[in-house]
Amino acid sequence: MDQYFKIGKLVASHGLKGDLVLQHSLGKKTSLKGLEAIFIEEKKDSFLPYFIQSAKIKSDTETFLKLEGIDEKETARKLTPKEIWITADDFKKFAATSSPIALLGFNMINEGEDLGEIIEIIEQPHQVLCVIMVNGNEALIPIHEESLEKVDRKNKKVHVVLPEGLLDIYR
User: Which residues contact 45 (CB under 8 A, 6 or more apart)?
Assistant: First the structure.
């Protein structure tokens, strides 16, 4: 099974012909040139592809999308505000390496202990929250200048020093 990464969500329809606005966190302006399809998670771990007819840059964090088979404003509205996913290979092509979302799929290391894979990134004004699984529970781990030790891109590891007791609430 392919691995999918969440890159944003469809936030609005645009115009009368079914165009959509994708708000993404890829870290750079992009027209998604070369991307064939986006995916919407219909139910847990079941992704439905939507093929891209055309795409155009709107801003640093938004792209206009025209999807095959979505030709009316009403049809497009049914897809908002759905989250958008792309395959791991496409993610590597389109995510800026300096953006927080580029840490998806990295393992988080706290003082030598491997806490697990980062499965989601939530960007906030003063920090980034990384979602990992700890004992079957979703754990929100804040990353900011005090907790981030280093990012090892080669080995896909994020080294952190977490406040004492932070993980106890998830264990």
Answer: none
Backbone angles phi, psi at 147, to 5 degrees: -95, -20
pLDDT of residue 1: 38
Percentage of the chain exceeding pLDDT 90: 9
Q: Which helix (H) or strand (E) holds 152?
A: strand 148-152
Residue 49 identity (one-letter amino acid): P
DSSP class of 119: -
Residue 18 sits at φ, ψ, to 5 deg, of: 90, 15
CA distance 144 to 160: 9
Phi, psi at 91, each rounded to 5°: -60, -45
pLDDT value at residue 107: 92
CA 94 from chain centre, in angstroms, equals: 11
- Measure Cα distances from 105 to 3, 10, 12, 87 in Å: 9, 23, 28, 12
Residues of the chain with pLDDT under 50: 1
